[in-house]
Amino acid sequence: MSDKSAEAESRLSQPELTYEVKSQMDAEKDGRTSENGSAVAERVSHSSVVVEAEPEIVYRLYRRRFVGLFALIILNIVSALSWPWFGPISNDMAADFNISLDQVNWLGNIVALVYLPTAFLVPHIVARYGLRRCFELGAVNLILSAWIRYAGTAQALSGGRAYALLMVGQLFAAIAQPIYQVLGPKYSEVWFNLQGRTTATMAIAISNPIGGAVGQLISPLVGSTRQSILVLGIISTAVTPFIFLIGNAPPTPPTYAGSKPSPPLMSLLRAMVGQTVPQEAYMSRRERIDFAIIIIVFGTLVAASNAFAILTAEIFQPVGYSADVSGFLGACLLLTGIVAAIITAPLFDRVFTHKLALTSKILVPCVAVSWLSLIWATKPNNEAGLFVVMTIIGVCSITMLPVGLELACEVTRNADGSSAILWFTGNLFGVVFILVQGALRASDDATPPLNMHRALIFNASFIMVACSSIFLIRGKQVRKRADEEKLREALEVSNSVRLS
Q1: How far is Cα 175 from Cα 346, in angstroms, rounded to an integer?
Q2: 149: closest CA among 134, 162, 166, 137?
């Protein structure tokens, strides 16, 4: 390869770690031969040896994967702001826009409902246009949501017309959120290797609940309701240039799985019910059972956490806890979980790399028992006990987010499709949990009035039944084993070349 060509490639790629073995024929087919027609050289730890070998084995990591990961985290946080934004200022919104509290609540509900169909459309968009175009679509929707919402703050508009614009703005925000959330595992697979995939998935997965917490914190602190909506619009617009930091795919994949496109979502859905599908989408009966278990457990735990975040005050205030203490309990669940996920995700990448199913069998029962104990822990003068329960739930639940997403990728070999199904289920179950628990609220005549004791019983019963299925999971990590086998083949070729 000429000095000029090599220098250009170096500027473009900036590889952190390189391993390449290519045959002359394969190199000519994909147009990556050097100027004199020689095959691309094998590189191990930045050293170069020119070889001719079959089959083509090309793996490389790029430093810019971290830039794209950071950008995707920021976009995920901001896309999550809109859903809880109006909760803390609901009374002021109702007064300023002359609408009811139920109408204010629907500004959040519309996000959850639109999320459901959008989550299933995301894999189709990625398959046709790629990651970058999908992220650009999310950015466009963020901008539209920002300024359509702000247009609804015009003083000349009546309550009905202003509310219609607010709803349309929230609809566009609801399209953006699943784009950045669903594609986390796919981005990890395309850009990261075996020692970084789970950590990258964790960082993207927890950024969404962080965004929800930030939204609840900021919205009441930035002035009037109209000023609050303007601030949300400015934030949503300001982050959209981050999409230019996210690459569609690296020039050379980091792993064997990263080199393969995900099968279509319809192939995954057909494989789940045992219909005939292409070989790359095929799932054995055992894998279909495992994926069904993952769907049920993941959806239940996400729904329980989301419902609790919305109903925290309604659960604790009737038994004597202040709004501040209720908020601290909700924050305890989130913050301890985030810290635990940050600590454990690298361990799953490097130490417990083949123990995802075993981890699930340990953590999921702990979560289920903790939700069950909340029935009796929710009583007056039991702050210490409640904080302990919240800590256990947070640590185990949020740690399971990346584990569940990665385990689903392992049994389906379809990163974006499996993620779409899991997040769809979590949001669908979440709507059900909120509606059912609201219906189970006690009356004004109960002791204490408006208590949520029956709601907690429903919550714990559902979780216990759903999570008991985790003991049936096998969770064979097929994708990881295929990646490791391809890496072994590459190392064998490398060693034989060096010896010769």
Answers
A1: 31
A2: 166
Alpha-carbon dihedral angle through residues 181, 182, 187, 189, given to the nearest 10 degrees: 130
pLDDT tens for each residue of 177-236: 889 988 888 898 889 887 888 888 888 888 888 888 788 778 888 888 889 899 999 999
Beta carbons within 8 Å of 186's beta carbon, 6+ residues apart: 126, 131, 262, 415, 416, 419
Element (H, E) at 20: strand 15-21
Q: What is the pLDDT of residues 56-70, one digit of tens each?
A: 556 788 888 899 999
Q: Which of 198, 216, 218, 232 is nearest to 407 (CA)?
A: 198
Cα–Cα nearest to 150, from 137, 173, 174, 169? 169
**162-176 burial, b if ≥16 CB within 10 A, otherwise e?**
bbebbbbbbbbbbbb
Contact call for residues 296 and 472 (beta carbons, < 8 A) = no
Record the tokens describing residue 357, joined without a space: 């199913």
Cα separation, 261 vs 247, in Å, equals 16
Please tell me the predicted confidence (pLDDT) of residue 208: 84
- Provide the 10 A C-beta neighbour count for residue 274: 11
Those residues with Cβ within 8 angstroms of residue 94's Cβ, 6 or more apart along the chain or in another chain? 100, 101, 103, 104
Token reading at 195: 């020692």
Residues 6+ apart with CB under 8 A from 424: 115, 116, 119, 120
Q: How far apart are CA 461 and CA 459, in angstroms?
A: 6
| Location of structure tokens 């900036």 | 14
Q: How far apart are CA 272 and CA 388, in angstroms?
A: 39
- Cβ atoms 129, 189 nearer than 8 A: no
Q: Which residue has the tokens 């995707």?
A: 72
SS (H, E, C) 93-149: HHHHHCCCHHHHHHHHHHHHHHHHHHHHHHHHHHHHHHHHHHHHHHHHHHHHHHHHH
Percent of the chain beyond pLDDT 90?
A: 27
Question: Burial letters for 376-413: b for 16+ Cβ neighbours within 10 Å, e otherwise?
Answer: ebbeeebeeebbebbbbbbbbbbbbbbbbbbbbbbbbb
Q: Find, among 95, 6, 80, 4, the residue nearest to 48 by Cα.
A: 6
For residue 179, the SS3 value is helix
